[in-house]
Amino acid sequence: MELRFLLLLLCISGFEAQEFDAVVSRAEGQRLIVECHYNYWDYSATPKTWCQLRDEKCFPLVSTSYTSDRYQNKVTSGRATIEDDTGNAIVTITMEKLQVQDSGVYWCARYYLPSTMYPLKTIKLDVSKEVQEYDAIEGQSLSVQCPYNIQDYKGVKKAWCRSTVQKGCDVLVNTGHRSYRYQNWAQKGRARIHDDTQTGIVTITMENLQADDAGVYWCAYYKPPRLYRIIEVKLAVTKATTTSVVPVTSSTGHTSLILSTASAGVTPADISLLNERNFIILGVVLGVFILALIGLVILCTRKSKQLKTKGDGQAEAIYEEPRNDTVSQGFSNVYDPKDNKQEMPQDLKYATLAFKSRPSPRESVYANITPSRALEIPHTRSPTEPVEYASISLKPLASGAKS
């Protein structure tokens, strides 16, 4: 018995220097399942335990046991369950709803009452609150930083893998060892990884994201063929949004412009940017429409004025109604509305008639018509049209004459 305690103390004292059988990373709320194999012939009837190492002691969380000479091979305590499959010599431990405080070093061990334990497997468990989520648009880049414990994992290879249902996690790019030296940088395709062993941060970069890159990824420790998750990343990639102005005609025949946006999905930041772009486009469209309307009003006004001016120029002559029926003795005051402009033969001439009072019935009537000589108006190149003058006198008719 003393020898067993001595061996236990040696194992515990040398624990910091030993390698772990497995390094497991989980996020809060996830489940941990561990399988531990043992020698069937020697230990199938020996109780097993799941304990956590603290202060160089391993404190049991759940253990199998004997009750009334019967072996209780499956026991649950709190969030931990242990099951000893004695037929296959496998102990399975399950921890549900992991919390950050569950992080630490555990033993799956053979258990001898009251407190002697021999580890079958040593597990290093890291539980993180962080499950990083990223939203990106096609063509953008993704950059992820994964911090780790330098003392424990400085020389351990790191990997960036994509989680799949069938294969667990497919490695896209990883660091490695070449010529007995740790190579902390690597690139494959559009994925790049860099392990800063001084600060304990692994940086992963993915360039030119595509829609089919959406999925779940791990930043992990890599001990081929096993991967031990450090951080889980959920990536969503949407297609680039396009905005266009589409004419829409209603049932009444009215046509309006509608801003149409096509997108497979946008983040709140994208929505804000999209609203700003739509506002600018709508302002430009309204501005162009208002300018076109103003130009149309000005054009219509000018056209109306031109038509009115043309109508005034073609107006017919205005004659004054005579005050009595007596014709004066002569014509006078000829007026040409076109002034000195060149006239066409078919142009009309205007005359003003002056009417006098009716002559005495005793005055005789005679006519003397003489053609006038064309007068040339000074300072003009063309003579005026000939004007004929007439004088009319009235005289009384002879007695008995018929009118």
The CATH architecture of the largest domain can be given as Sandwich
Helix content: 10-25%
- The total strand number stands at 28
Q: What is the class of the largest domain in the CATH system?
A: Mainly Beta
Individual helix count = 4
Task: Tell me about this structure.
The chain has 403 residues and is an alpha+beta fold. The chain has four domains: 2-128, Immunoglobulins (Immunoglobulin-like), CATH 2.60.40; 131-238, Immunoglobulins (Immunoglobulin-like, Sandwich); 242-284, no CATH class; 324-398, no CATH class. Helix content is 16%, strand content 44%. It has helices at residues 2-13, 40-43, 150-153, 268-313, and strands spanning 22-27, 32-37, 48-54, 57-63, 65-67, 70-72, 74-77, 80-85, 90-95, 104-112, 116-128, 131-137, 142-147, 158-164, 168-174, 176-178, 181-183, 185-188, 191-196, 201-206, 215-223, 226-238, 242-249, 255-262, 332-335, 350-352, 366-371, 388-393. A five-stranded mixed beta sheet has the order 1-11-10-3-4, covered by helices on one side. The protein has a five-stranded mixed beta sheet with strand order 12-22-21-14-15, with no helix packed on it. The N and C termini lie far apart (175 Å). The relative contact order is 0.09. The model is unreliable at 1-17, 248-267, 315-320 and 324-335 (pLDDT under 50).
